[in-house]
Amino acid sequence: MTPPTPPRPTAPPPAPPAFEARGAGRSPARPGGACPYGGGTAGAARPPADRGQAALEYLGFLPVLLLIALAGIQLGWISYVEQQAETAARTAARTAARAPSDPAGHGAEAGQSAVKPSLRPATDVRVSVGADAVTATVTIQVESVIPGMAWDQRVRTATMPRDPNPPRT
Fold it and tell me: pTM of the predicted model, to two decimals?
């Protein structure tokens, strides 16, 4: 019987590359985890020249996104101002139609008080009294949310029949 031969020494396994040492794992997008730019992990999926590209694209699109957001806010503000003008016109016409004395003065005062306090300086209420009807016209200047844009005034009119026997107060 021959003596057993001692096992041959084997070379140590090669050290993993630095990107695999981070523990990012293999890329599931490619068979075997191969990356087209020389790595085997998902963390090395881009060539070095593409770093920061997404940030630059985002910065380029940010002004457009901001303008769209401000336009949406501006449309909401215009709708709110129109609603305030409509409410003020109806209130002014209704109050003037029922006022026993000085219907135009009472109507204009009621129209001003029906508007949000921050909009009152930009509000103009005009009441015209006829023989059988009262018409109130309210004009409110729309402030711009978007810098450099000017918006028109919002004008709303309401007509109410005059009360032939107004209540005495």
Answer: 0.63
3-state secondary structure of 105: helix
**pLDDT at residue 21 is higher than 50:** no
- 101 is in which domain, residue-wise? 53-161
Task: Give percent of the chain with pLDDT exceeding 70.
Answer: 76
Lowest mean pLDDT among 13-27, 78-92, 125-139: 13-27
Instruction: Please state the domain count of the chain.
Output: 1
Residue (of 157, 140, 159) closest to 86 by Cα position: 157
- Encoded amino acid at 13, one letter: P
* Cα separation, 101 vs 169, whole angstroms: 10
Residue 40 belongs to a domain: no
* Residue 18 forms part of a structural domain: no
CATH code, domain carrying 111: 3.30.1300
Grouping H, G, I as helix, E, B as strand and the rest as coil, residue 43 is helix
How far, rounded to the nearest angstrom, does the alpha carbon of residue 30 sit from its chain's CA centroid? 41
